[in-house]
Design goal:
With about 450 residues, the chain is mainly α. It is about 60% helix and about 5% strand. A hairpin with a 2-residue loop joins strand 1 (about 40) and strand 2. This is Phage minor capsid protein.
């Protein structure tokens, strides 16, 4: 099954691509802010420069900048998303093949399922990313599930990026108004412009309102990809379970699982690491059951699935295991494989497979969860400060106030990074380690953020 570590790493390349877009767009807005107040090569804020018509003209330029950059970068982002999906699909397909081979061989030793001839898992599934779904050892229905999840995630990313131009335009207008407001109250022009740029860069380009916070474009897209990949994983596993009559699944576990005040599926620490019964009479699972037409599709390479389905379905656990849907909330926004969840699950055959997961201490799990939440917060603050530095440097401002501000930011970055590393070192025994890629902000036109 897909591990929590894998589901963390799977979005790295996509997030890096999106970070480049965010950094570029913030830098463009910074330049536009300065240009609005620049006349004959001199920066000067006056009522005429901040007039509504001039603001709207400049804001229109921001909108066009953002739209143009998104259109150029979106194909590259989507390529990274596809790589993530197909990399995961290869692992899922291989796991399915290994599971099937193991349980069938054990049953054949007992004199059962002697007429089953299983295909071999391909080398490609073990070591590489297939060029297309036809290279996977998956049934036609499983491939359709994969491609549907990929299209759904791509559609979500397209919708997220569409909001960027409008958000950037609003941020630009608010920043210009802030600069004018500060100058009217005696703040120097350069300081006012840098403060306005600081405000834009601190937020970055936001796309969605998630809970009580606005998320940056890279956070929103990373969450969409991780969730999309994991939901594809869950749907493919359940499809294979339905095709071959498997009645149980084993859920992954990790220290630091989501903790809530509820005793239901939203509290992931309660249900992780256990075996669950899949109740195929539940209407929520009907979509995974193969139709007669789909069984016919499998009649060549995957005919073994229908042959063993009746045998597997006849096995009963005598009520030993809890219901998967009810306990883990599969299909729910905050349940297993829901938003940003790093749990996954795989097919399980009682009496053949063994659940080797050891019980995770409740207090240790909650402590790790809280430490990871604090670590993510520190990482966001470091990225924010680096974005501010990039934006101010890219604005084209000069002079002593500019140099002072950059020195101040450099000191802050150093202090934040030292604090972050100290925090990780202090809690290394709890599994808290520095994650350098989470501290990166893309360079803008050769400007380093080191």
């Amino acid at each position: 099954m897909l591990t929590p570590e894998y589901l963390t790493r799977i979005v790295e390349s996509t997030q890096e691509k999106v970070s480049e877009v965010n950094a570029y767009l913030v830098a463009r807005i910074a330049r536009r802010i300065k240009e609005l107040f620049e006349s004959t090569g001199k920066v000067d804020i006056s009522p005429s420069s901040i007039s509504d018509i001039n603001k709207q003209i400049a804001a229109g330029g921001v909108y066009e900048d953002v739209q143009s950059e998104i259109e150029k970068k979106l194909p590259g982002i989507q390529r990274e998303v596809k790589r993530a999906f197909y990399d995961a699909a290869g692992k899922i397909s291989y796991d399915n093949a290994v599971f099937t081979k193991k349980v069938v061989e054990i049953e054949q030793e007992q004199g059962n399922l002697l007429d089953i001839d299983l295909p071999k898992a391909t080398k490609l599934e073990r070591i590489g990313i297939p060029e297309d779904a036809s290279k996977l050892n998956m049934t036609p229905k499983e491939i359709r599930v994969l491609e549907s999840a990929y299209r759904r995630t791509n559609g979500e990313i397209y919708n997220l990026t569409r909001t960027c131009a409008g958000e950037a335009q609003r941020d630009f207008i608010e920043a210009c108004d802030r600069a004018f407001f500060l100058v009217k109250r005696g703040v120097s022009i350069d300081t006012a412009i840098m403060d306005a740029i600081n405000e834009v860069a601190s937020k970055g380009i936001t796309t969605v309102h998630y809970g009580r916070r606005n998320d940056s474009i890279e956070s929103a897209i990373a969450r969409a990809v991780r969730t999309g990949v994991n939901q594809a994983n869950g749907d493919i596993v359940l499809t294979r379970c339905a095709e071959m009559g498997v009645n149980h699944v084993l859920v992954s576990q990790h220290v630091g699982a989501r903790v809530t005040k509820s005793d239901d599926y939203t509290n992931h620490s309660l249900w992780q690491g256990k075996v669950y019964r899949v109740d195929w009479s539940n209407p929520a699972l009907s979509q995974y059951e193969p139709t007669p037409q789909e069984i016919q599709e499998n009649s060549s390479s995957f005919s073994f699935l229908d042959k063993i389905k009746g045998f597997f379905r006849s096995k009963s656990d005598n009520g030993k295991y809890q219901d998967f849907i009810a306990e883990c909330g599969y299909g729910q926004m905050l349940g297993i494989c829901g938003i940003n969840c790093r749990h996954s699950f795989g097919a399980f055959y009682p009496g053949v497979n063994i659940n080797t997961n050891e019980t995770i201490d409740k207090e240790a799990n909650e402590e790790k969860y809280n430490l990871e939440q604090k670590q993510r917060g520190m990482e966001r603050e470091i990225r924010k400060t680096k974005r501010v530095k990039n934006a101010i440097e890219a604005s084209g401002l000069e002079g002593e106030e500019f140099a002072d501000r950059i020195r101040e930011i450099n000191r802050l970055i150093k202090a934040q990074t030292e604090s972050y590393n100290s925090f990780c070192a202090e809690h290394a025994d709890k599994g808290i380690k520095p994650i350098n890629w989470r501290l990166k902000v893309a360079k803008v036109e050769g400007i380093s953020n080191s």
